[in-house]
């Protein structure tokens, strides 16, 4: 545990648009609360991009970030077009920030919302899933995006969610996936969730299919406590939850890795109100409070958040949240002063924040690599073909004629639906055919896992090529510890 008096050096970026204004207000509050911090300032954002650094950060500043490990970042403006990379994605992926944590709570009647008792936290996987960004055009008609999900990736994020629940005295963790459709990728996430949930018997756990889960967040957000989900779903439900709470301009977010952490507001640089002194600093301040908790300075975070809630319930509001409960409409720095004046006070109408003071940055372990027995039982060869009429029987016959003696064609699917043998004429076929080849000894119901050698696959590809059939990619079919490691075609 960090000595409470030792100053911790962190990296700060003032960002673009309203960034410098809200960062100034936030740092002023941190200083008034005597948070033991020292700062190295770096430049990120528009100026850096426009100077020709497409990553949005210079090599020297990148080194500062790596040295200090903790980054408080104001929003930045990403110039439109021009091949600029998203700085957030670069930082997240390079520094292994696997968890995106976004608390969403209602503060009615001071912040408008249809609900008055919502207090949930979304823990979103941050590195994998469709956001690995591996996309290819494979044929004239078909493009593909790879959805990658790893066991260590699932373990890290799910364990983080349960640890977060444990140290923050939260009662339930809800997992959201679509494993009724994606049985292997989302199925892995769900099964790792079940394994890890069993290690935390004191915390309730449940699973929702993401579509109904997202609908429930919109309709009954108070039914949730901590939600853990994959990257894409997490991206979507985080915005639903923030919107439902009425707090898009209010929420902070943390990107957490084993060693690094980046903390920010969820909103952007708001160029429309930049320089006017009216921006609400609360989102960044809440991000900074998450940082304090991460650094083991929960006492300071609690003091600041209680002062913030007191200012809000006293009706001291920036223009963006002004409503009938407002007693004084203030600008950014005046709002910061109002929070500072209330340091040490607790709200009387809103629920005071009470944090666990005995925790420092959550660390999670992953199970060491365990080799599994791998048996090769076939191959899916993806073929680019359209012929004269996209007829599955024509390509089926061509493939059977071209197939070497050691293997046989089991089926062909088009966009996942079996079209050969015995397809139905109503199924529309694109120019992208998944052709499943298995051992010549395969017998349905009797010898379904007959082994295949890599040499058999090489011979198959050679023969298909010789016969003018264009294979655009292959996927080997394996059993892992005797369990099928691939999906069946619809109708297989
Ligand atoms: P935005 O969040 O900046 O603004 C949306 C609306 O909310 C605007 O009307 C704005 O005035 C208002 N708003 C936002 N924050 C506010 C605050 N603290 N106080 C009062 N009002 C506030 O979204 P945008 O306009 O779509 O994006 C502007 C720029 O920000 C873009 O360049 C975008 O790429 C960038 N952006 C950066 C981040 C980040 O750095 N993490 C996140 C989102 C967007």
Description:
With 492 residues, this protein is of the alpha/beta class. It has three domains: 189 residues, Isopropylmalate Dehydrogenase, CATH 3.40.718; 132 residues, Isopropylmalate Dehydrogenase (3-Layer(aba) Sandwich), CATH 3.40.718.10; 111 residues, 2-Layer Sandwich (Alpha-Beta Plaits), CATH 3.30.70. The chain is built from 13 helices and 20 strands. Strands 2-1-3-12-11-4-5-10-8-9 form a ten-stranded mixed beta sheet, with helices on both faces. A six-stranded antiparallel beta sheet has the order 17-16-18-15-19-20. A two-stranded antiparallel sheet has the order 6-7. Strand 11 and strand 12 form a beta hairpin. Helix 5 packs parallel to helix 6. The protein is elongated and about 85 Å long. The model has no long low-confidence stretch (mean pLDDT 93). Nicotinamide-adenine-dinucleotide (NAD) binds next to loops.
Key phrases:
492 residues; alpha/beta; Isopropylmalate Dehydrogenase; Alpha-Beta Plaits; 3 domains; 10-stranded mixed beta sheet; binds nicotinamide-adenine-dinucleotide
The CATH architecture of the largest domain can be named as 3-Layer(aba) Sandwich
Tally of structural domains: 3
**Radius of gyration based on Cα positions:** 27 Å
- Mean pLDDT, as a whole number? 93
Give a brief rundown of this model.
By secondary structure, the chain is of the alpha/beta class. The chain is built from 13 helices and 20 strands. β16 and β17 form a beta hairpin.
Write the layout of secondary structure elements.
Blueprint: E1 8-13, H1 19-32, E2 37-42, H2 46-50, H3 59-68, E3 70-73, H4 87-94, E4 99-105, E5 119-125, E6 135-137, E7 143-145, H5 151-167, E8 172-177, H6 185-197, E9 204-209, H7 210-219, E10 226-229, H8 231-245, E11 252-256, E12 261-265, H9 282-294, H10 298-313, E13 316-318, E14 328-330, H11 332-341, E15 374-384, H12 392-402, E16 407-414, E17 417-420, E18 432-439, H13 454-466, E19 470-480, E20 483-484
Parallel strand pairs: 1-2, 1-3, 3-12, 5-10, 8-9, 8-10, 13-14
Antiparallel strand pairs: 4-5, 4-11, 6-7, 11-12, 15-18, 15-19, 16-17, 16-18, 19-20
Helix pairs in contact: 1-9, 1-11, 5-6, 7-8, 9-10, 10-11
Bound molecules: nicotinamide-adenine-dinucleotide.
């Amino acid at each position: 545990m960090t000595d409470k008096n030792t100053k911790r050096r962190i990296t700060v970026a003032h960002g673009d648009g309203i960034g410098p204004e809200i960062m100034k207000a936030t740092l002023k509050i941190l200083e008034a609360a005597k948070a033991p911090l020292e700062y190295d300032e770096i430049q990120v954002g528009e100026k850096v991009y426009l100077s020709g650094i497409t990553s949005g950060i210079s090599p020297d500043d990148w080194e500062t970030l790596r040295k200090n490990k903790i980054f408080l970042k104001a929003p930045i403006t990403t110039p439109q077009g021009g091949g600029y990379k998203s700085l957030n994605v670069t930082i997240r992926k390079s520094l292994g920030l696997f968890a995106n944590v976004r608390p969403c709570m209602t503060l009615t009647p001071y912040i408008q919302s249809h609900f008055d008792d919502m207090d949930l936290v979304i823990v979103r996987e941050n590195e994998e899933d469709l956001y690995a960004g591996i996309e290819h055009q494979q044929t004239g008609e078909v493009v593909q995006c790879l959805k990658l999900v790893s066991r260590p990736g699932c373990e890290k994020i799910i364990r983080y969610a349960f640890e977060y629940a444990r140290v923050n005295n939260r009662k339930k963790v809800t997992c959201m996936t679509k494993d009724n459709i994606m049985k292997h990728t989302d199925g892995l996430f769900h099964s790792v969730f079940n394994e890890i949930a069993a290690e935390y018997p004191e915390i309730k756990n449940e699973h929702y299919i993401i579509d109904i889960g997202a609908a429930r967040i919109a309709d009954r957000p108070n039914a949730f406590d901590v939600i853990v989900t994959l990257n894409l779903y997490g991206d979507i439900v985080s915005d639903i939850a923030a919107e439902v709470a009425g707090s898009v301009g209010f929420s902070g977010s943390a990107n957490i890795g084993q060693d690094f952490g980046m903390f920010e507001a969820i909103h952007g640089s708001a160029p429309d109100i930049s320089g006017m002194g009216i921006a609400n600093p609360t989102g960044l301040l809440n991000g900074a409070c998450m940082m304090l908790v991460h650094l083991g300075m929960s006492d300071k975070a609690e003091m600041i958040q209680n002062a913030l809630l007191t200012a809000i319930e006293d009706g001291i509001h920036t223009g963006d949240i002004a409503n009938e409960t407002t007693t004084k409409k203030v600008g950014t720095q005046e709002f910061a002063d109002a929070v500072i004046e209330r340091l040490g006070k607790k709200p009387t109408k809103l629920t005071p924040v009470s944090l666990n003071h005995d925790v420092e940055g959550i660390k999670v372990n992953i199970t060491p690599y365990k080799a599994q027995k791998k048996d090769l039982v076939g191959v899916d060869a993806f073929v680019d073909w359209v012929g004269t009429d996209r007829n599955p029987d024509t390509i089926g016959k061509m493939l059977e004629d071209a197939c070497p003696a050691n293997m046989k064609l089991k089926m062909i699917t088009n966009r996942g639906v079996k079209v050969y043998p015995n397809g139905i004429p109503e199924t529309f076929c694109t120019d992208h055919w998944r052709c499943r080849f298995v051992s010549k000894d395969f017998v349905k119901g009797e010898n379904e896992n007959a082994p295949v050698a890599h040499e058999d696959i090489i011979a198959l590809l050679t023969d298909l090529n010789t016969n003018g059939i264009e294979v655009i990619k292959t996927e080997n079919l394996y059993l892992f510890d005797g369990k099928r490691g691939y999906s069946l075609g619809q109708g297989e």
